[in-house]
Amino acid sequence: MAPPVTVNTINPKVIECEYAVRGEIVILAQKLQDEIKIKPEAHPFEEILYCNIGNPQSLGQQPITFFREVLALCDHPSLLDKSETQGLFSTDSIQRARKILDQIPGRATGAYSHSQGIKGLRDTIAAGIEARDGFPADPNDIFLTDGASPAVHMMMQLLIRSEKDGILCPIPQYPLYSASIALHGGTLVPYYLDEATGWGLEVSDLKKQLETAKSKGINVRALVVINPGNPTGQVLVKMLSQSIRVRIDLNNKPPMVLQVYQENVYVPEKKFHSFKKVSRSMGYDEKYIHLVSFQSVSKGYYGECGKEEVIWKLPGLVLILVMSPPKAGDESYESYISERDGILSSLTRRAKTLEDAFNKLEGVTCNKAEGAMYLFPRINLPEKAIKAAGEAKTAPDAFYCRRLLTETGIVFVPGSGFGQVPGTWHFRCTILPQEEKIPAVVTRLTDFHKRFMDEFRE
Amino acid sequence: MVPKALDYETLNENVKKVQYAVRGELYLRASELQKEGKKIIFTNVGNPHALGQKPLTFPRQVVALCQAPFLLDDPNVGLLFPSDAIARAKHYLSLTSGGLGAYSDSRGIPGVRKEVAEFIERRDGYPSDPELIFLTDGASKGVMQILNCIIRGQGDGILVPVPQYPLYSATISLLGGSLVPYYLEETANWGLDINNLRESVAQARFKGITVRAMVIINPGNPTGQCLSEANLREILNFCYQENLVLLGDEVYQQNIYQDERPFISARKVLMDMGPPISKEVQLVSFHTVSKGYWGECGQRGGYFEMTNLSPKTVDEIYKIASIALSPNVPAQIFMGLMVNPLKPGDISYEQFLRESRGILESLRRGARLMTDGFNSCKNVVCNFTEGAMYSFPQIRLPPKAIEAAKKAGKVPDVFYCLKLLEATGISTVPGSGFGQKDGVFHLRTTILPAEEDMPAIMSSFKKFNDEFMDQYEDNWNHSRM
């Protein structure tokens, strides 16, 4: 008798769903890494350079000292009762930890909290949102979650009733959306960002996709906007107000807005404006727009991916600290500012260096990374390469990425993992390797690319 | 106006169908009363630290050091932290790929999974493969992930004990599957009768349901019973014959309050039974840092271990785990510390032993106090809490009370529990939240309130119960102890 749980009998939606950020290429990379550990000469490179995932601290980015001081004190509150603590922790971190612990019932940082997250922390977050946007925010409308991903899942669960329910997603998109839509049995309705205009949105395309979906009997229920974009990095300004207008015209699509990279903006001419701020400024309040915004501590300049803001857990804490960091005059202010600015300016420099390097490669064009943590260059692959990929039964961009990995140890994510205009090929590269590693990445990539094009050029 | 996508009417029906009584009506009412200034004793959730149980010192020291690794470079760190905590922090930091702030492997830090495997091997006497162990944000997330893989639609049934912890009923509802109940025998100490199981399966199949999996909660929640080895053998044989995957919720394995039936893992019994069963029965086992004597509910740390699942299936489960990128890293450190605890000779060992023993012995006494307290009421029968964290007394409600409940539009045990709450501030969960036989009523409370508060709580309950029975039963005699 066949065992009850096999790939033939598990939930087919599980089989259908895909997530390239930790997909096939990455699994291979880990295998190669294990091989190098055992035999360092096993491959033509000494180390794997993970440029596939927005995981800053795994690549050497340092956490913000003040934040970690506060977290450590909250994790072990009895430190606050010891006089020696003043010798090892800054005064303002001690004060802040006390203040936060006072907001936690019984100071019990190990207890299940309110299912939406600790009330006091939500109050602080609401105040932070209000300060950012200039419009009131209600703590009862805020849910703290285990990272932004589960929150997106929850929304999909609420919205998707059957495969007839569609969710408008930008293409290219961060594959959390495609994966969770598949997992919940809905339909992804793509709208294409325009590479030629810095990944801008054409409202006419949005409308067209909506009409097409409707004609197929799909009930479009939400519009996903990722600002700043992932993988594309564009910072939306005009697009926000345009898409709001479209939404109003076409009724009842709640923009589901992912704003995790709001602190990562690298171009002086663009500024992050939250969706809520723009819609309220246009005069649309909650009667007109259902808006669900997601923010995360995994990105920004703090990069606390492993922490996750959790419904049940103490850290709404990092979010609080991000919303109200040390102020001028506080003991930790100087070091906080220098750490923060150091990280942000380094990210800006790395973004530029890599963008320039990509644009120098034959057949490759790369839009500027206005924000977020990625570059998403487009590569014109020669016919010969596309044919070879076909024979190897892989998508052409995955073919290129695989070769890149096995010859140089560099890990990119093929563009097909994010979606792209059919017939175009891209790959996503993070800007996160430490600055001193970037020249090595550039050199290896450039040499590899030349060899690859020599092999496959017409 | 056209209904919007997130308006109530247009939400996913499965979401609306879900019930989760542990934080349901009673809890909401209790929270309201608390806001109004009434003192509430929350005994609705197994949330030890919220009721004053102290966290163990050693793990908190280690995690604090991991949060702020620059402390390790400070020459004065030894003034605040013992050397074994410092060593352990360095150990766990070395296992991470960039400290607590970096995403780990989607299955969890390999070094921690290895420690979990070693723990399982020491506990059961059989080797365990770290590649088949996935760390999760709490055991509940793991349960939901596995059920999501199994349930394809309404036609798929999951055997669930009644009474059960409503994570199962809620998740099955959410995923659009069918719950197939099997009743535990209250008069036999909530024992499992294999005939009940067979009957449940037969009925389900008759209705056209494909029964895919069986859930056991051992020790039980809310019932607390510990399964015997014979029981586990029966269950595994049953799963083998009926082609079911066994889901072993073993989160309370450290909470055992009697000596006749110590905890035995489903995996150990499976392996003991030898081939073909040991090689064929599919098993997923769940554990957590939230319970035991650790009680670190808020950290969100858990794991599941898979046995006899094919590599292809494991890959699919890995794929789903990877969408959320990574389980939370600090909780993984707690998990490592839990499965790889201190040893005699370690500086912090004595303190650790004292703290953990203290907690377990106090829980054992609390279990006894509560059981006896409930049994001292004439209309209440309470099985002893053999394990876990709860007391689940059966309350006989007179017909007049049931009438009154109906008039108030409430299920009888909800009616009783609401009145108990309003009168005494004790916030419980009505038995209907867990499932029970028709016409039989229970409530669930935890055994977690501080020992010194227990006598007052029990006499408060007794006073309320006597007054309630006075009101609704003719010729009710107060039993004076």
UniProtKB/TrEMBL annotation, chain A:
Its principal location? cytoplasm
What molecular function does GO assign, one term? L-alanine:2-oxoglutarate aminotransferase activity
Tell me which InterPro entries the record gives.
ALAT1/2-like, Aminotransferase_I/II_large, PyrdxlP-dep_Trfase, PyrdxlP-dep_Trfase_major, PyrdxlP-dep_Trfase_small
Question: Function of this protein?
Answer: Catalyzes the reversible transamination between alanine and 2-oxoglutarate to form pyruvate and glutamate. Participates in cellular nitrogen metabolism and also in liver gluconeogenesis starting with precursors transported from skeletal muscles.
**Where does it localize?**
Cytoplasm
Q: Which residues form the signal peptide?
A: none
Describe its assembly. Answer: Homodimer.
Pfam assignment, any one: Aminotran_1_2
Q: Which SUPFAM superfamilies match?
A: PLP-dependent transferases
Q: What cellular component terms from Gene Ontology apply here?
A: cytoplasm
Instruction: Note whether Nucleotidyltransferase occurs among the keywords.
Output: no
One Gene Ontology BP term is: L-alanine catabolic process
Membrane-spanning intervals of the chain: none
Tell me where in this chain the Aminotransferase class I/classII large domain is found.
98-301
Cofactor(s) the record lists: pyridoxal 5'-phosphate
Name this protein carries in UniProt? Alanine aminotransferase 1
Of which family is this protein a member? Answer: Belongs to the class-I pyridoxal-phosphate-dependent aminotransferase family. Alanine aminotransferase subfamily.
Q: Which pathway does the database say it acts in?
A: Photosynthesis; C4 acid pathway
Keyword Cell membrane attributed: no
Automatic annotation (TrEMBL), chain B:
Note whether Transport occurs among the keywords: no
- Report which superkingdom the organism of origin falls in: Eukaryota
User: Which catalytic reaction applies to this protein?
Assistant: glyoxylate + L-alanine = glycine + pyruvate; glycine + 2-oxoglutarate = glyoxylate + L-glutamate
**Which InterPro entries does its entry note?**
ALAT1/2-like, Aminotransferase_I/II_large, PyrdxlP-dep_Trfase, PyrdxlP-dep_Trfase_major, PyrdxlP-dep_Trfase_small
Q: Does the keyword Transferase apply?
A: yes
**What are the GO MF terms of this UniProt record?**
alanine-glyoxylate transaminase activity; glycine:2-oxoglutarate aminotransferase activity; L-alanine:2-oxoglutarate aminotransferase activity; pyridoxal phosphate binding
Cofactor(s) essential for the protein: pyridoxal 5'-phosphate
User: Example GO biological process term?
Assistant: photorespiration
Biological pathway = Amino-acid degradation; L-alanine degradation via transaminase pathway; pyruvate from L-alanine: step 1/1; Photosynthesis; C4 acid pathway
Q: Name one Pfam family in it.
A: Aminotran_1_2
- Record PANTHER family: ALANINE AMINOTRANSFERASE, GLUTAMATE--GLYOXYLATE AMINOTRANSFERASE 2
* Family, per entry: Belongs to the class-I pyridoxal-phosphate-dependent aminotransferase family. Alanine aminotransferase subfamily.
> How the protein assembles, per its UniProt entry?
Homodimer.
Q: What is this protein called?
A: Alanine aminotransferase
Q: Which organism is it from?
A: Hibiscus syriacus (Rose of Sharon)
